[in-house]
Amino acid sequence: MASVRYFLHIGYHGGAYGGWQKHPGVLNVQGVLEQALTKILKTPVAIVGCGRTDSQVHAAQFFFHMDVDKPWTFDLLFRLNKVLPDDIAVFDIIAMEGLPHARFDAVLRTYDYFIHTRKDPFLGSFSSFYPVANLHFDKIKSAIALLPKYTDYKAFCKSPDRNEHTICNVYSATLFADEQSGKIRFNISANRFLGKMVRTIVGRLLKIGTGELTVDEFEYYLDHPDEPQVITPAHPQGLYLTKVTFPYLDIPPATTFIAMLQNNMNTEWKAI
């Protein structure tokens, strides 16, 4: 009997993990899921994720695929969620036709990065705290407008040599702010992202906002990808992978928490 490929739709809070990808001696999301699946299905299970997330970075929506030779006869969704820790949840298990690939077939990925500029004891694990004031939002907006005009993001990657190439097609990038509550949200969509790319962009946008970096200097990084750059990524806890889209699979994130962050009734987001 031929194996069947399944896509699993999940979400996780990455605070306790060294990222999605398996690394020896480091607690990671992929390893926890493989261990749980192997235990429940009583056979070694290897999974392939739709991408990688850095240490302490979250995913409101994430997909991975696995191949199963023998169908299970119980509620796998229930058992998985019972075995998995509270910071990892499985939302859907979807049987696929053929051999679609969770990583290579994804055509669009969207990230949100949340910042709070006023100290809040309840946001520390979900948003990045930067005690900055009087940001130059007009200059940040000018820098963000440059992102879709360039494709080589080597200068925004911590370890570019780990990639076959550093070309990324950025389709949209928007900054939202609620100056009254001191909250900022950066949203960006692209076909792919490099390691620490979003956090590096945010780090430089904050420097533009505080006057430490000019828009021209920001564009210089985009225009000269091969020149050595100083990479200072923004804090990891404010970053969420919020949407992954395939040509054959486009479903909304299942968790309501990210929607609460994006559309909090106490936060009046305004596009900058």
Task: Give your account of this protein's structure.
This protein has 272 residues and is α+β, with helices and mostly antiparallel strands. The chain is built from six helices and ten strands; from the N terminus they run βαββαβββαββααβαβ. Strands 1, 2, 3, 4, 5, 6, 7, 8, 9 and 10 form a ten-stranded mixed sheet that branches. α3 packs parallel to α5.
Shape: globular
Q: What proportion of the residues form beta strands (DSSP E)? A: 25-35%
N-to-C SSE series? EHEEHEEEHEEHHEHE
CATH level 1 class label of the largest domain:
Alpha Beta
**Domains (count):** 2
Termini separation comes to 55 Å
Q: What is the CATH architecture annotation of the largest domain? A: 2-Layer Sandwich
CATH topology of the largest domain: Alpha-Beta Plaits
At the fourth level of CATH, the homologous superfamily of the largest domain is: Pseudouridine synthase I, catalytic domain, C-terminal subdomain
Output the structural class.
alpha+beta
Mean pLDDT: 93
Which terms summarize this structure?
272 residues, alpha+beta, Alpha-Beta Plaits, ten-stranded mixed beta sheet
Mind sketching the topology for me?
Layout: E1 4-12, H1 29-41, E2 48-49, E3 58-68, H2 76-83, E4 88-96, E5 108-116, E6 128-129, H3 137-144, E7 170-178, E8 183-190, H4 197-210, H5 215-223, E9 239-245, H6 257-262, E10 270-271
Parallel strand pairs: 3-9, 5-6
Antiparallel strand pairs: 1-3, 1-4, 2-3, 5-8, 5-9, 7-8, 7-10
Summarize the structure.
The chain has 272 residues and is an alpha+beta fold. Helices cover 21% and strands 25% of the residues. It has two domains: 4-96, 2-Layer Sandwich (Alpha-Beta Plaits); 108-271, Alpha-Beta Plaits (2-Layer Sandwich), CATH 3.30.70.660.
